[in-house]
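We now fix the convention by which a protein and its fold are recorded. Here is one such record, which you should read through line by line:

>
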Amino acid sequence: MSDASRKSKAEARCEAQRERILRAARHCFVESGFHAANMASIAETAGVSAGLIYRYFESKNAIILAIIERHLADVQSDIRQLQQVSEAVANRIVERFRDWRRRECEMRSPGLFLEIAALAHRDPQVAEALRTADRRIRAEIGAWLVRAWEKNAGCGLADAEIRERVFVLQCFFEGLMVRAIKQPDSEEMIKGGLRPLLAYLFPDGGERDRPD
């Protein structure tokens, strides 16, 4: 076995262990909250020793920051996927609501979202990481809206209009997570409410924003 092959396998094992710890931490944070969940409970859930966790994460805060970074990557992937799917944007949003309602969206579960937001209110380091991730997500959404308007309407949007639409869309998504907890039977109302929202956000109501 070559040195490169051994290095590749070692890196894969490390990444698998790291993901296992993050998955266990997400579960503990949602079930018990950030303060009640400790490194020992995360280790027990992951089926590893506490010492092993410290090889990958120096503290519980380091785990939280890694979860925020993963959240950013997943949201960016979602935004790009929305631009590539053949279904209307509204259909994909409703599917995401169903995932939240069934708790099948592990990384972006409503419970984890609320825990992170609450912790950011108390922890400056987490707050800054969350704001940084949010800025990057806003930029991704803004670029999507610009492309949609240029492609489907043949015109651009002023910077203020882009910021306003991005803000409205983020408020809607974040509110939708909370509705998945408080009002899980609201799918039909969501479908009805999406029509005027998407008509405001996109020149075609989100029906044609896809590759040629």
User: Anything to note?
Assistant: The chain has a mean pLDDT of 84. The chain is about 75% helix and 0% strand.
